[in-house]
Structure formats: structure tokens, C-alpha cells
């Protein structure tokens, strides 16, 4: 049971999606137990749903208490546990003699995370009813802290993004200043939110640089940063492709950077060895002009479908290239499709020199579709990153 205990301590967090405990031992009144994370009064809890006969019973637990209870259930009452999180899928089997077998695999592809709200009104990291100065100035909140109705989707997006930040916070350095670069920051809703959360709420020593091509936007954001006393939040005018880092870069954020600007940002992040990459791509036009395949012609002849397929293929191949460079890479839903079509987030965490991606598989896919993207070209032009890619063969 020690390995199961270790698994539960590792996975009972915000990234958990669901656990199903089943296959009851003889004489057990409960046929199945399900559990999921919920937010209660701003705190992370885990709600169990236990089926006993025709009735369903719910109970809310702290992670440490639930770990003890699950171990007891698996030792005495059940023989199977299935766990699904944002990072892994795990199956736990207990034999009649009490032997525990655990099989784990990394999640691949697009993983949709369940919502954590328990009550009708969701509690956000930046709460409604508590005015946040930058949200007031950016028109998301009123001075009283009420979210402006027309900006509610933006408010949800900001908080969703902060949940992703919280999930990777442990990966960032704790013994020195953390440097974060935000390429294509625009009006900087999320850049200000990131600084507010990490610096003010989490008390981290963090320096954030926002980069954009619009001079008036940069000037406005710098004025606001000074007004709020954000001493280590700065906005610079510049192009991501030509930006030169003056020191270590720990995290790279690129949100809605248009077309190949995302590729340049990802390439810069890889060459700097950034520990974390968070990217929400936008306007993936490059491969749309290249995509050709006779077998797929009945689908690709429709412009709308070709455009959507090109965007998804672009992001999938970007994720694969990051995997080859030593990143544990996921494609996640940033915000519900009903609120914005730009809802795919690529999250990559540096794990080692060599990743799980496969260069031959990547090239076979690209050749099949007659495409070659900017990120591939940039990586292959750099001898160091090219050698890493080409090492990842079957």
C-alpha cells in the first residue's frame, strides 16, 4: 500500500479529474465510490459519492484525510481504483492475497479538466466583490468590486489562467528571483493578474517583462504598473523574434500571439531552457496555406474545415516538437469554446535533456500532410536543438 499512498499524495490536488473505486469485496454494501475535487469556501476539498443500494451519499474531505480513507477502502473493501488527472492515468488492482499492482501512463493529447465549483456561485482566485485595482482600471470590475457584465468572460479567463499558474508554481525556483517573459502581452489583463497573484498573494520574488509591438499599449501598461507599485513588472516595445534575454528565463508565456509569433516565442523558450511554457496560440495561418493531401481532399476542399484542421495540426505538432526537446507537454482547454474559439493552451514543463517525442513519427505526419512549420525550421537551423530532435527516433 506504500506505492498507492505515494500516488494519492502526489495526485490529490487541483489537477485531479476523477477517481473511481470499484470491484467490491464479498459482503460489501457499497458497489462503487467516485470522488472529484471541489472548491468549498475558497479551499480545495474532495467530494466522495458513495453508492449503497439505491441511495447515494456525499461527503467532503481534506486530501490527507481522504488518503487514509482510500487506503483503508482498498485494503478492506475494494479491489480496483481508476485515477484520471491532468498529468496521468493510473489503474490500481488489489489481488485476493493483497498484492497491489499500479499501472500509470502520462496523459496525451487534449485533456479537459473538470470544473471545481461546488456551490452555484464559483469562487475565483481573484474573488468577486473584492476590488482589484488593475481590473478596475482595465474595465473588468467596478470600484466596488462587481464584475462588469460585458467583461465577465474575461474575468473567468483571467482566473482560469491563474489556476494554470498555481498548478506549475512548484516548478519555479524558490531560492532566487523568478523571471517570466510574456510575449504579445497586449492590454495585459493576464500579465497584471500573474504579477498580482505571484507577488502579492503568493509572496514570490518575481520579475515579469511584457513585450508587444504597440507603442501606445506599452506606454499605458507601464503607467498602470507604476500606479500600482508593481516594481518588477515592466513592459517593453519589441519583437519576440529579436528579443535577447539578459539572464536566466524561468517561464515563457505567450497568449494569443498571432500566427508564427507563437513559434518564435516557443523557440526562444526552448533555447533559454525555460522551465515552464504556457502558450495560447492564435491565428494559425501558416500551415493552412501548405496543407495538402489527396486522401483528405473530400474534407480539405471546405475552407472552414481546412482552417480548423490546420490550427489543430499546428498546435499538435508544436507540442510534439516541445516533447522532443525534453518537455512534458500537454494540450489543455483554456476556457470553454462557447466563450472563445481560441481555447487551446499548450503547457510544457522541462523534465530533462531528452523527451518522449519521436522525430520519425513527427516527420511522417508532416510529410503526409505536405507541411513544414516555423518552429520546426527554427529548431532544425540550430545545431543544438536539431541534434536533440534527431536523437528522438524509433
Question: Can you characterise this structure?
Answer:
It is a single chain. The protein has 394 residues and is α/β, with parallel strands linked by helices. The protein is 35% helix and 27% strand. An 8-stranded mixed beta sheet has the order 8-14-15-13-12-9-10-11, sandwiched between helices. Helix 1 (2-11) runs antiparallel to helix 2 and helix 7 (261-272) packs parallel to helix 11.
Mean pLDDT: 85
Distance between the termini: 36 Å
Secondary-structure-based class equals: alpha/beta
Helix content: 25-40%
Q: Uncertain runs with pLDDT below 50, 5 residues or more? A: 336-340
Largest sheet: 8 strands, mixed
Helical segment count: 12
Shape: globular
Number of strands: 15
Radius of gyration: 23 Å
| Proportion in β-strands | 25-35%
Strand order of the largest sheet: 8-14-15-13-12-9-10-11
Task: Write the topology of this structure.
Blueprint: H1 2-11, E1 16-24, E2 30-40, E3 43-52, E4 55-61, H2 63-76, E5 78-85, E6 88-94, E7 100-106, E8 110-111, H3 133-137, H4 152-168, E9 178-183, H5 189-201, E10 206-212, H6 215-228, E11 233-237, E12 251-258, H7 261-272, E13 276-282, H8 297-300, H9 303-324, E14 327-333, E15 344-350, H10 359-369, H11 374-381, H12 383-391
Parallel strand pairs: 8-14, 9-10, 9-12, 10-11, 12-13
Antiparallel strand pairs: 1-2, 1-5, 2-3, 3-4, 5-6, 6-7, 13-15, 14-15
Helix pairs in contact: 1-2, 4-5, 7-11
Question: Which short descriptors sum up this protein?
Answer:
single chain, 394 residues, alpha/beta, seven-stranded antiparallel beta sheet, 12 helices
Amino acid at each position: 500500500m506504500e506505492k498507492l499512498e505515494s500516488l494519492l499524495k502526489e495526485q490529490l490536488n487541483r489537477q485531479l479529474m476523477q477517481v473511481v473505486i470499484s470491484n467490491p469485496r464479498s459482503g460489501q454494501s457499497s458497489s462503487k465510490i467516485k470522488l472529484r475535487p471541489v472548491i468549498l469556501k475558497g479551499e480545495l476539498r474532495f467530494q466522495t459519492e458513495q453508492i449503497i443500494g439505491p441511495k447515494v451519499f456525499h461527503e467532503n474531505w481534506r486530501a490527507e484525510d481522504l488518503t487514509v480513507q482510500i487506503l483503508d477502502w482498498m485494503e478492506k473493501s475494494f479491489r480496483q481504483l481508476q485515477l484520471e488527472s491532468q498529468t496521468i492515468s493510473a489503474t490500481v488492482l488489489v489481488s485476493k492475497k493483497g498484492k497491489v499492482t499500479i499501472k500509470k501512463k502520462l496523459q496525451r493529447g487534449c485533456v479537459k479538466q473538470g470544473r471545481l465549483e461546488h456551490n452555484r456561485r464559483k469562487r475565483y482566485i481573484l474573488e468577486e466583490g473584492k476590488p482589484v485595482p488593475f481590473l478596475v482600471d482595465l474595465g473588468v470590475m467596478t470600484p466596488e468590486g462587481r464584475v462588469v457584465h460585458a467583461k465577465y468572460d474575461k474575468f473567468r479567463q483571467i482566473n482560469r489562467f491563474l489556476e494554470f499558474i498555481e498548478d506549475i508554481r512548484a516548478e519555479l525556483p524558490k531560492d532566487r528571483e523568478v523571471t517570466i517573459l510574456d510575449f504579445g502581452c497586449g492590454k495585459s489583463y493576464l500579465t497584471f493578474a500573474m504579477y498580482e497573484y505571484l507577488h502579492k498573494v503568493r509572496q514570490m520574488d518575481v520579475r515579469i517583462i511584457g513585450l508587444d509591438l504597440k507603442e501606445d499599449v506599452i506606454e499605458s501598461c507601464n503607467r498602470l504598473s507604476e500606479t500600482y507599485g508593481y516594481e518588477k513588472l515592466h513592459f517593453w516595445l519589441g519583437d519576440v523574434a529579436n528579443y535577447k534575454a539578459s539572464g536566466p528565463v524561468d517561464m515563457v508565456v505567450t497568449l494569443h500571439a498571432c500566427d508564427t509569433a507563437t513559434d518564435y516565442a516557443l523557440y526562444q523558450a526552448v533555447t533559454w531552457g525555460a522551465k515552464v511554457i504556457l502558450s495560447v496560440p492564435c491565428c494559425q495561418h501558416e500551415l493552412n496555406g501548405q496543407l495538402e493531401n489527396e486522401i483528405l481532399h473530400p474534407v480539405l476542399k471546405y475552407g472552414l474545415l481546412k482552417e480548423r484542421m490546420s490550427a489543430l495540426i499546428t498546435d499538435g505538432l508544436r507540442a510534439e516538437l516541445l516533447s522532443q526537446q525534453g518537455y512534458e507537454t500537454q494540450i489543455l482547454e483554456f476556457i470553454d469554446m462557447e466563450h472563445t474559439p481560441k481555447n487551446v493552451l499548450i503547457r510544457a514543463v522541462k523534465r530533462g535533456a531528452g523527451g518522449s517525442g519521436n522525430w520519425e513519427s513527427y516527420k511522417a505526419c508532416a510529410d503526409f500532410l505536405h507541411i513544414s512549420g516555423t518552429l520546426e525550421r527554427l529548431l532544425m537551423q540550430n545545431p543544438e536543438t536539431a541534434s536533440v530532435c534527431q536523437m528522438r527516433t524509433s
